[in-house]
Each structure stands twice: as structure tokens, then as C-alpha cells.
Model the fold of this input.
Amino acid sequence: MDLNTTFAQVQKASRQLQAAGDERINALLKGMADAAIEQQESILEANREDLARMSPDNPKYDRLKLTPERLHDIARDMRKVASLPSPVGRVLKESTLPNRLKIRRESVPFGVIGVIYEARPNVSFDVTALCLKSQNACILKGGSDAASTNRAIAATIHDVLQRHGMDPHVAELLPPTHEATAQLLHADRYVDLIIPRGSGNLIRFVRENATIPVIETGAGICHTYFDRYGDTAKGARIIHNAKTRRVSVCNAMDCLIIHAARLADLPDLCRMLQDSHVTLYADPPAYSALQGRYPDTLLQEATPEDYGTEFLDYKMAIKTVEHMDGALEHIRHYGSRHSESIVTEDQERARRFCRETDAACVYVNAPTSFTDGAQFGLGAEIGISTQKLHARGPMGLEEITTYKWLIEGDGQTRP
Amino acid sequence: MDLNTTFAQVQKASRQLQAAGDERINALLKGMADAAIEQQESILEANREDLARMSPDNPKYDRLKLTPERLHDIARDMRKVASLPSPVGRVLKESTLPNRLKIRRESVPFGVIGVIYEARPNVSFDVTALCLKSQNACILKGGSDAASTNRAIAATIHDVLQRHGMDPHVAELLPPTHEATAQLLHADRYVDLIIPRGSGNLIRFVRENATIPVIETGAGICHTYFDRYGDTAKGARIIHNAKTRRVSVCNAMDCLIIHAARLADLPDLCRMLQDSHVTLYADPPAYSALQGRYPDTLLQEATPEDYGTEFLDYKMAIKTVEHMDGALEHIRHYGSRHSESIVTEDQERARRFCRETDAACVYVNAPTSFTDGAQFGLGAEIGISTQKLHARGPMGLEEITTYKWLIEGDGQTRP
Done:
């Protein structure tokens, strides 16, 4: 199937969206929120079909599952997006040249954004709301596990778009096939940006195949370095929060790096993790320090594979270093440039850690669990970028706009 | 040859650069400017070797050629870059959460930037200066035509780096081979950004092969739309300046789109082009309007290939449209999203053109020849982006930085 006709229709529809005002778009988003509640029976029915094809033991099962409560939260989030200021039309720079030429740099939508994601069907609503709010048309490519649910959600959205006199192609759902993904990744004539949301494998595939600019999101291999001059009580709280607040998210901590001079404090630093049954994969010095002071059943010797692993589970690696340089080097080698933290009372070492750690978010005496668009005051979040081009860390509405230079003259020429 | 060892050395050196202060870097840039003058004999000698391998009739010959005057200009530009404020360490956002967590978004270097370019050896100096000023290490991949000159320039730069106690790997020149380009495009572990500068073919090759984020630059297919309500005197000046100021640069105009109701004014609009011997490729209505009123030898009937062509020469296509919609559609189809202009006295139509034209720079009553970093007040320019991710239009020092979120706490945890 040649999807270029579809892509061209989306591009055409994006122009209608760009001409629409923010008020009209907000009404549309509120209409979508209402429809998510009013038409929940058809969405939940489709969701039951998808769930019937998956074993409840599959870790994806819970992410796939929609409930009236979850639809309620989705609707609330869409109303929230409608209440935010428009990210379009912000004047980013402005000047008048000596020749009276007026130059202005103004935020504008990208045009068409393609989003590729996996099992979570709520993404279909979330992404559509954020794209429409920023006046970007969107092409959604969801996973096959959620195919029925996504079709029902797309039908709901199209119904609202039609009732509001908006071309339904502003939010298009592709078939859940690899062929569709491949065509999307090469649609440079029609699509301005691709955002893959999901596993490292998906992101790697997109990076290697896309001829369209990509913002990589998601994979978070996050470290906390407990420095020679760290405070034990703060460290224990930070490690516990970073590891256990939500283990399935990308900002969860994967590895504790401990300064060798502080191994005696390791049992205290890990004590709170016992209650959450966190398994520790410790290198020999850390293992010795913990032995007999952490439950045997939850303590293992680390293998090389335990470092650089995003656990997404109640598991954590521990690495001992002789110097701060070792910690910086370990993070450089194994980190995914997402979120990294240092616990120290030494300001100079904190500054050095901030400068030399190449990551979207660098923390001093705070847990990586804070990496989140809402926490950072962005109002909403379409993903967490782990690349450096365009947007880094949590991305809100402003991050899915680009800009245009507008130059107004009166017949001036350049000498 | 495996270049990964080299790439790793550059990455390591980039950290020394990030730890250096702006003053030290400015001293380095001034040292490079001095060396470009003092060591000009070895650079010019190498340049003569390159020139000897090329026919003086080759259009690249002039771009390849260095002279004492050109080296003087290069040195002046490097001193200018040294005088600019550092683009690193700017606080882009700052807030304190109710829990007293301090969050700051601060500009930082990308790390390592790869620049791929063709015949112009001055790019080796320009790019190195801009990258070092923004505390980015750079990997230069110049064209084989300029191989000797680039080697001499790299030797000069390395000499200065060494004298200033800076790891010479902060500016690395690759061999001028396709193999080197291929390895660079896949060095995602070591290189943070690729900027191709040159022909459309080079840019397409990079887009299709890079697994590293790319900023596309350069190709400019630029239109000027003379609207139904355009002022003829302004239009004639704007068209002449956009087409003839410098025909070899990307902001030069390639196609005039004229509203059919104003065909009678076409001879006046084109009159100034005669003096520069601009050949016009006109569609039938424009051809008829010009026949007998523009030199026969410079007037031809347009073929389909004349539209969407970047002439880089004293040539210009003319397209007639019945409505403004036709102009917008023509630009959408043939433009390269670089610079587009409308000549009109109708404010409403000007606004619509600005909104609906998808280009980095959109002009009203001014020529596209103004698209330039210095003109736009950026102080210096590393290229003109024709993509929408990260930077659009002229890119200065700020555009070759990214940012980091820095979060400072005192043991706070997220509920």
C-alpha cells in the first residue's frame, strides 16, 4: 500500500490547522475530552478485543488496558492542554536594521509530526492533543497490540474533527504494520519531524532508517553518584525515591555509584530499598560492604551486563569507584544522557559534576525521578528527549514548534 | 582505516575545551588569526599545489583560490568571532519549585560537531573558529580538491593549539575520502551533530546515510512573487537585487512569479536585469509580455526543468499565476524552504503570504539577498539551515549550542 497519498492529505490538512485560531483549537480539544468520556463504551469494547489477544501475565497488559478512570484522566489532561497558552506566534527575537528593515523571529508549527509508539493507547489521545494545540498535524503509528483500541480512538477523534469543520486528516492513524513505519520514515516530502516513543530497539530502528529529522526519546539509563562528601540521610532518601517511585519509567535510577571511602555507609544508604524488595547487583567491594546487612535473597554479585542496563524493575546495580573521575567515566560509558545525579556537600565537586556530565538533566542532591515536563513547569509533555538537537530532556508544547524569520521592508536593497 | 580511535580522541579533547574559559578561547582565536597571516606562505604554497591540479575554467577554481587578501579577511573574521559574547552558559529558563528545588536551563556546547564541505578552504578556518568559540570540538571533512590547502591550514591550527596548551584533537581534519565521510556519518558514539555544507547532492547523501542528527544547509531555490497589488518601482529594485547581488550564493533569487493582471508591468520589472545580462526563462504569457521589450538573446521559453532549479548564475525563470493561490502552490512545490518574498502593497495578502509560506525566511517588499547571519544580527554564520529542527535560516554561535537542565536540591524527593 502506497501511503504517500495519505501523507499528502495530512500535509494539506495541516495548512487548515495553521490558519485556525487558538480558541477554535481549544474548543476542539474540549470536544475530544468530552467524546473520550461519552464514547467510552466503544473505546473500552475495542480495548477488550485487544486485551483478549494478550496474556494478562504480559508486562504490556497493564499499559494496554484502558478503564473508565483512565479515560477520565485522559480527558482531564486534554482539557489541561486546551487551557495552556498557544506555543505558536511567540516573538523570539525582534530588531529593526538601520535601513528600517524589520526582522522578527517567530514560533510556528513544524507542519506534520509523525509519532511512532508501542502498546499504550492513551498516547493516541495525548499526542493528538499536543500536536493539535501546537497546530501541527499528526500521523500516529501505534503498536499492533493496541490496533483495535487505536482505531476506536481515531474514529472518536475524527468524529469530533468533522463536527468542528476541521479536515479529519489533521490526525491520521496508520495501519500497525512495519511497512507503514518504513514508508513514514522516508516521507521527507510530507513529514517534518518523527518522534519515536518506546523501547531502545524501536528508537534504534528509527535512527538508522529515517531520512526525516528525528527527536529520540525515552531510554533512560540513570545513575546516582554518592560522593565522598555525600550526606548519608539525604543520600538514602534520594536513592530510594529515584529507584522506587515508579520503576517502569525512564527517569528511574538504574545504578548507584559509590565512592570507596563511603562503603561503610552503603548499608544505611540501601536500607530503605529493602522494604520495596529491590534486588541489588553489587560489585565485589559493595557486595562485601552489604553482606549480612542487606537481605541475602536480594543481594547478588554484579555481572558486566548489569551496568548500562535500563532495569524498569525493582533492580539496581552498584559500582564502587576510587575517585570522582571514575564516577564521571562510568556515566560517560554507560549513561544514556537522560538524567544523572550527584549526592555531595562539596560545592566544587557538585559544579564539576554538573559541567562534565553530558546529560539532559543533571541533579545535585535530588533524585532523577523529578525529570518530568509537569515538574519542570512545561505544562504538558510529549516525551523526554535524549538527544541534543532541538530539544533536550522533557519536551512540552514549545519544543514541538520551530520558527520562521519574517522580514518586512519597503523596497530596501542590500548593498 | 578505522577512524574510531580518532573520533574518540576528539571526544576526549572536547572535554578540555568545555573546561576552558572564554578568555582562553579568545586568546586562541586571536593566535589563529595571527598565524593565518604569519604562516601564509606555507598555506598559499599548498594552495598553489591544489590549484595546479584544477583547470582555471572550472567554476570551483575561484572558490578554491586563496590570496594574501583573502587570508587577511579570514584573520579579520576570526578576530571578530573572538570579540563576540560566549554562547555558552546563558540561562535560558530558571525557576524555583514550591519544594525549593532550583531548576535552570543553561546553554552548553554540543560536544563534537562534524562539518562536511567541498572546495572552499576558508571554511576550515571559519568552522574551526566558530566551533572553538562555542566550545565544541570539530571534525572537518573537506573536499579532495582542497586537500593540500586544508592540510596546511590544519597544521597551522594545530600549531597554535599546541602553543596554547590545548589538545590539538579539538580540531581534527579527516582524509578527503568517501570512506572517511561514511565513517563520520555513523560515529554516533562520538559525534553529536553533522553539518553538511555544499551541493544538494552532498546534503542528500548525508541525509540518507547519517545516523547522527544533521542540520541541512545551503540549497536555496528562492522565489519572488510580484502580487496583483505590487509596486512596480519597488518590485524592479527588489528583483534586481535578489537576482544579481551575488548569483553564486544560496539566497539568490531563482524564479519570479508574476500575477497575470500585472503582465503589462513585466518589462519594467525586468528592465534592470538587462544590464547584468540575465537570461530569462519565461512561460508563454510572460514570454509574450516580454517579447520585443527585453533583449531577444536573453529571452527564452521556459522548459519544465527551469522551475525548481537553483541556477547560481545570471539566469531566472518566470512563472505566471492567475491567483495568489497559484503562487503559494508553486512555492510549496518548487521551493527549498530557504527564502521567499512577496511584493505587494496589500497588507492582508502580505500577512497571508507570511503565514502560508513554509520557509526559513519570508520577506515582504524586500529581496531574499538579505538572508545572512550578519544582516540578521547574529554576528557570525556557520551556515543557513533549510530544515526545521533546532535551527532555521542563518545559524550563528547560539545555534551551535544545545542546553542542559541543572537541578539543585537539598535532599527533596518527589511524592
